Amino acid sequence: MRMERLAAEAHVAVRLANLEEVDILRRTMKERLRESFGIDHTELEFESAATSSHSRETIRQE
Ligand SMILES: [Zn+2]
Q1: What separation in Å is there between the alpha carbon of 10 and the centre of ligand 1?
Q2: How far apart are alpha carbons 15 and 51 in whole angstroms?
Q3: Residue 22 Cα to ligand 1 middle (Å)
Q4: Ligand 1 center to 58 CA (angstroms)
Q5: How remote is the CA of residue 36 from the centroid of ligand 1, in Å?
Q6: In angstroms, rounded to a whole number, what is the distance separating the alpha carbons of residues 30 and 14?
Q7: Which pLDDT value is given to residue 54?
Q8: Range of the domain at 44
Q9: How many separate domains does the chain show?
Q10: Distance from the CA of 5 to the center of ligand 1, in angstroms?
Q11: How far is the CA of 11 from the centre of ligand 1 (A)?
């Protein structure tokens, strides 16, 4: 039997002001990571794009 478990950890910089929207985004991302990549454990950290300490190049601009 092959034991394999995929996990992902990511920081997500968002411009959403509403906690409900962040919740919906988190659920959507988890679903997509599971369905598309078989990742059954995700740790997502949400932070404000405006105050993120990451470099501008790291954050996709829209
Ligand atoms: Zn971060």
Answers
A1: 8
A2: 10
A3: 15
A4: 10
A5: 23
A6: 16
A7: 80
A8: 1-62
A9: 1
A10: 24
A11: 5
Distance 3 CA to ligand 1 centre (A): 30
Confidence of residue 62 (pLDDT cuts 50, 70, 90): low
H or E, element range at 21 = helix 19-37
- Whole-angstrom distance, CA of residue 13 vs CA of residue 44: 10
Query: Could you give the CA distance from residue 44 to residue 30 in angstroms, rounded to a whole number?
Result: 9
The Å distance, Cα 12 to ligand 1 centre, comes to: 7
pLDDT confidence bin for 1, thresholds 50/70/90: low
pLDDT digits (tens, 9 = 90+) for 13-60: 998 878 999 999 999 999 999 999 999 999 999 998 888 888 777 766
The answer to whether the CB of 60 falls within 8 A of the CB of 26 is no
Which CATH number fits the domain that encloses residue 31? Answer: 3.30.429
